[in-house]
Amino acid sequence: MARHALHHPVVGVLAAARTQDGRWLLVRRSDTGTWAPPGGTLEWGETLSSALVREVAEETGAHVVSVGRVVGVYSRPDRDPRFHAVTVVVQVVVDAARLSPSNPLEIREARAFDASDIPWPLAHGCDDLLRDAMRDGAVVLE
Question: Would you state the pLDDT for residue 140?
Fold first, then answer.
């Protein structure tokens, strides 16, 4: 229903979040029960950087230590079945000493995974977004 109500793409951010010891921070979503990187949509008057910090804090309880490179901008209309989003993926480093999602209706849990233990496939078409973040290279524009 949201897809029909929104006639314009929404702007989203996704944090390709790594802990200081190199693990990838993911959240288990309540709607699908599957895992995804933390992220969400920008609020009115918010910058991309502040949205990243807010979304990571809300969805995981972790603290963003530093914001890194832009991994890519993803805009394929069929990527997320809920709505058409233009999602900016950014690498961040987090302090994940205390993981505690603030909204259990949206996020069931947050956990840091070694790259070899990531529970693929990820929710809402996030597989290639995280895989792009995991490799060094050019910025992706989709």
Answer: 78
